[in-house]
Amino acid sequence: MVAGPTTHKIRIAARLRPRINNEPEDDCIRIIRNDNSRSASISVTNQRNQVLTFPFSSCYDQDATQEDIYNDDVKPLLDVLHNGVTVTIFAYGVTSSGKTHTMQGSSTQPGIIPRVMHEILHRPHPDPGKKLSFNVSYFEIYKDEVYDLLGDRETAPKLPVRENDAGQIFVANLSSLPVSTEQEFQSIYSKASKARSVGATNLNRASSRSHAILTVEMNILDEERQKTLTGKLVLVDLAGSENNKMTGNDASRMAESAAINKSLSVLGQVVHALNQGAFRIPYRNSKLTRILQDALGGTSVGLLIVNLAPGIKFRQDTLNTLNFAGRTKNIENKPVINERGNAYHPSVDNKPAPKPHFAALHQAPQKMAAAVIPTSLTSNDLAPAGPSRVTVKPPSRSRTSMIPVPGIQTSKPPTPLPTVAEVQPQPMTLEMNEQIAALVRAEVARELERQEKEKLAKEEEVRKERAEEAEVERRLSLDIKPEPSQDDDVPMETEASGSANPDQINDVLEGLLKHHRDLDNELRTRLSELERKVKEDNHLATVLSPSSKKKTGRAYVALAREYSQKGRLEISLELYRKAWTYVPDNAKLQDRIVEMEWAVKNNKPLLLSPKRAKKSSRHSRPKRSSRSSRQKSSLPSVSAGASVEYVKEEEDENEGADDTSESWRSRTRAGKRKRDPLKEEVTNSPQKTSGPLKDQLQDDPVTPPKRPRKGRPSDIVESDGDGDGDEWVPATSPRKVRSGRD
Ligand SMILES: Nc1ncnc2c1ncn2[C@@H]1O[C@H](COP(=O)(O)OP(=O)(O)OP(=O)(O)O)[C@@H](O)[C@H]1O
Known about the structure:
This protein starts with 7 loop residues before the first strand and ends in a 24-residue tail after the last strand. The strands form 6 sheets. Strands 2, 6, 7, 8, 9, 10, 13, 16, 17, 18, 20 and 21 form a 12-stranded mixed β-sheet that branches. A hairpin with a 5-residue loop joins β22 and β23 (644-645). It has 22 helices and 24 strands. The protein is α+β, with helices and mostly antiparallel strands. Adenosine-5'-triphosphate binds next to α2 and β15. This is Kinesin-domain-containing protein.
């Protein structure tokens, strides 16, 4: 269950629901199992008749029961709760894929929630000295606002999301009700579930119009130590992404749909940023990601259940979902034990802990004794907690202190609490002063460390930006003569082929760069302006209009392409990634990023592929089409077992920024449209497909990502689902709908 001794990767389980409502039979989505184990691959036949495969450690087919999922993937996580750790289980998938069925189920087929509650309410703590009590809270995120489901939903106010001093995100003023029996829970839960926003769509009679989050707190009272551990189980039933064409949503549901899709899009961006090790993770861009922060790169143990709907109708959604899952499985969390002093009362503590005085944050930190961490549990990192050996005298006020799960590293340095030796029996006031001082010192140390890290990261970013700018300056200030003798400036294609004529390439480059110069100046001005705005407002991408986002994405792509031309793949990759943040729906751009990542990671040349002939090209550029075909025909086949021709639609990288902007259109009308660097690269770059490159590709143990040509039914592309290869972009386009209250 836990990936390693220091961190925990989010576990993924994929579930394909059976056909319902006379859905037509086809085998577009299948589960391929090598043996009888749960681990298997999901295969999807895409529009080009390629078979894409996504391996997962747990796959459930149409015949799998609710009990199967619960026993194999959920029940083993419950032990962790007894250690005072947070466990998050969330169901993700397109609308009508079976998320609510999996989480909640029905009276005849109870899902994860009733089964978990039955288990934890009946199972005593393995240490008889520890007493258990439970509290539940339940809320929904509807149109990016949080509403309590345990009160009167009709009059429920919007609740704020806040962060406490320990960095934990919580919903303020949320009801938290004690439960001790299954019946109590059932009565609370079924009433609250009826209050959840639900509406009928063409795809689902009872489609969830909100994300629903049920939290069960297991308070483990250790009377001997006067401590309370809190195991938290967070059960998330996400609203499904929607395509309004399929759901038949009316106008009144569009706002719901847009909110659902936007929050899921931000979820995809968070996962992507975590995968990239980005400095800024956009948790704050939606309430959903803010609330799930602990589950994504935080301190929770996580299980993601991806629900899949069968059939060709859901093919693209399935690819998007599997791509999301593939990226999520790389996210590492660092679970910790949630421990509090004995004055803990959940309902009282459901508010931020007081912050230290501002002045205290600017005092020099004093050397503090490290916390004494129990070692008795290290043999089994998630085994039920044994007798504690913590010798820390607890602070008298109620407060969360996070201590690493034995065997699992914490994401923050251990909270430096005073040791027993430091805290001698003193008169009450002295003792309190000492404890408060220790807590303040801990806060100061954490704050200073955070500030220092932030400063270093900013400095590094500025340094990189300056280096990039200097490079652009250098290139513009020169007369951009080709530099065939410098390895790093020779186009990678030349190196790869070993047969290209340098003079020809120089001619191509010279012409190309000349045409780019005007565009480049314009782009540089624009990008500097944007960077300036980004510094002022980290959420630029969220405030730009869709059209401006497309333009910005286009600007980054064009600049990225220039660096790629120069063989500066790493800079180019960064620029492509920046572009992607503005046009996250652009599948072709994502493909290009994947290719670049592969090339950079493996220190291989970037394989440029010819533009696929467009319908319009037969009118305007017959020669180019024919050249393109010649090039395609000479391209290498890749991967012995899965012969796939490497063909790419270069200009589609700009598809998020299709030529729909007024300025672009008017330029086109006036016949002044600037030559597109993407197209020029495709048509002008010599293709090296024979000889050494072909050999190199075939010998390469790492199959480069590829997009096979249409019309090759037997082509197979393996997806390792690890986020750096042959995957597809998450469904981010807001095309879903929901109904319910406003
Ligand atoms: N494994 C399954 N076995 C039988 N029926 C299922 C299964 N999964 C889903 N269904 C049925 O499919 C329909 C849609 O499922 P469900 O409401 O759970 O989808 P959902 O993903 O939660 O949709 P939405 O996002 O719109 O809320 C329901 O009628 C449900 O009973």
